[in-house]
Amino acid sequence: MNKSTEKTKQQFESVFVSPMRSYTLTALDYYDQLISAQMDAARAYSDMALSQARTWLDVKDADSLKKAMESQQKTASDFMERVKGDTEKVTSISQSFAQESQKQAEETTKKAVETAKQ
């Protein structure tokens, strides 16, 4: 009876606990990367906005207005490039997570089938 209990425990560990632990670690890594990317983006966007606000506060004449408008155009261009890069980064992180999750699901299914055959 003790061998049967031990075998059941090992099967449970192999089929449920170990895959759940692996998936949880993968998910935590994903969320860590995603939140880090979002925080980095938020910081960059905030820096751009504050820099632009300071530029507009320095407008005192036609020349400084022209410089502020040029700065606004450059900032808008930089912002769009940043958004594009951030979107690509988040997409890459998400694709990696999806692929790893699918791989783990396939391995878990294979283990479950092998365990059921025993």
Structural account:
With 118 residues, the chain is mostly helical. The protein is built from two helices and no strands. It is rod-shaped and about 90 Å long. The two termini are 17 Å apart. The model has no long low-confidence stretch (mean pLDDT 91).
The number of helical segments is 2
Q: What does the average pLDDT come to?
A: 91
Radius of gyration over C-alpha positions, nearest whole angstrom: 26 Å
Summarize the biggest pleated sheet: none
Describe the structure using short key phrases.
118 residues; mainly alpha; 2 helices
Briefly characterize the structure:
By secondary structure, the protein is mainly alpha-helical. It is 95% helix and 0% strand.
Sequence-ordered SSE layout with sheet pairings:
Elements: H1 2-57, H2 62-117
